[in-house]
Amino acid sequence: MSCWTKKLLISVLLSESSLSATDLEPKSFFNLSSFSVLLLFLLSFSSFTATEAYDPLDPNGNITIKWDIMSWTADGYIAVVTIFNFQQYRHIQAPGWTLGWKWSKKEVIWSMMGGQTTEQGDCSRFKGNIPHCCKKDPTVVDLLPGTPYNQQIANCCKGGVLNSWVQDPATAASSFQVSVGQAGTTNKTVRVPKNFTLKAPGPGYTCGPAKIVKPSRFVTADKRRVTQALMTWNVTCTYSQFLAQKTPTCCVSLSSFYNETIVPCPQCACGCQNTSQPGSCVDPKAPHIASVVPSTGKNNYVPLVQCTSHMCPVRVHWHVKQNYKEYWRVKVTITNFNYNMNYTQWNLVVQHPNFDNLTQIFSFNYKSLTPYTAINDTAMLWGVKFYNDLLSQAGQLGNVQSELLFRKDKATFTFEKGWAFPRRIYFNGDNCVMPPPDTYPWLPNGSSHQLISTLSLLTTLLAAMAFLLGYA
């Protein structure tokens, strides 16, 4: 919400609260209250600017696009554009990022290295050298691994895949070089592009306007000289799961050693089976499954899920496994129900108050996240490289699992009222659907406690009534 919006809202609310009851007739009071409600409703839509998308577990996460002009040419400049993924746990998967913008003048792209535009556009007005792209709104994609060296620059050619900043900072950036013509040849004549868009690979990111910043500085390989860009501007893009997809992408199921109840993912958590439309999901027992499911290793952004009650591409199961005198153990299983996707470099973010006493974790990497600074209740988990960092497509191999050993804190530890289960779980940066709290596995004596307390109350009431009637 902008400062102006906040001030306007506060002033209206204060003006209402300052009026006494005698100053207001019933009709005028109703009209004024209605006006305030209408104002609040309108402001709820206008309070989100282009780049406001807040993630409570990663409040500073964003993707920053840095545009560095490195040299001038006869009619423009040569720039290096770098996309930095500063999100702690959300990465860009195959088929990778797509970056677009709109030129402010009549710019063209003469040539590119490390990237390419998806369309050339109409270059018929050029008689000699033909530009790489003449579109007013070009769209750029990364080159694939294995691109010839004479077409590469540093940090290019990853197929548009960017890992998260915590998981692998060395692969969290991607660059390409662009030679721009008809653009001006000084800092005063160059105009920054407008309307930046980022798809990674689908929607979800909203980019703010380009802002001219202090020119970037570069240290030479021998670290004895520092050079700098001629001009630099930055663009910040933030993610919203609501914009990325209409339905969630994962769900959570729960179980425990002290209760036979297995709490499944909520029904229709990620959508419902469409029985009227054949092929909406895949029955793993169907005889023609081989003809429906694509060959292993081919990723498709559109999910093709196994038929389940929840219809989610990914399910995370949290099982309270064992209880010791000083410790307790949890087993976490991630199952892939998506036949169209191998999740490479997957990660899991879990919020639970006992992560400040995590003693040991098996077969997963672990890093503590502290979104609330002093409170250590959030952990990021991901697979060990070349061992289980690939979550295979739906099937027998489509799951990974690990166990976590927690030390008990006698002041807070309990198995009652669902305390042992996570508060929130993210898979690859998307918030998973949790079961309703009243369905969590309870201790076996939980219901008996409730019955005893009810019987005690009834007995006390009957005794009191008998006492009063006896002395009436």
Report what the structure shows.
- Keywords: Glycoprotein, GPI-anchor, Lipoprotein, Membrane, Signal, Transmembrane, Transmembrane helix.
- It comes from Gossypium harknessii.
- The protein is of the alpha+beta class and 472 residues long.
- Helix content is 15%, strand content 31%.
- Helix 1 runs antiparallel to helix 2.
- It is elongated and about 110 Å long.
- The N terminus is likely disordered.
Average pLDDT figure: 84
CA radius of gyration is 29 Å
Beta-strand share of residues: 25-35%
Termini separation comes to 66 Å
What gross morphology would you assign? Answer: elongated
Which class of the largest domain in CATH terms?
Mainly Beta
| Number of strand elements | 26
Number of helices: 5
Which structural class do the helices and strands define? alpha+beta
The assembly state of the depicted protein chains is single chain
CATH topology term of the largest domain: Immunoglobulin-like
Transmembrane segments: 451-471
GO biological process, one term: plant-type cell wall cellulose biosynthetic process
Family: Belongs to the COBRA family.
Membrane topology: Lipid-anchor; GPI-anchor
Structure characteristics:
7-stranded antiparallel sheet; 6-stranded mixed sheet; alpha+beta; Immunoglobulin-like; membrane
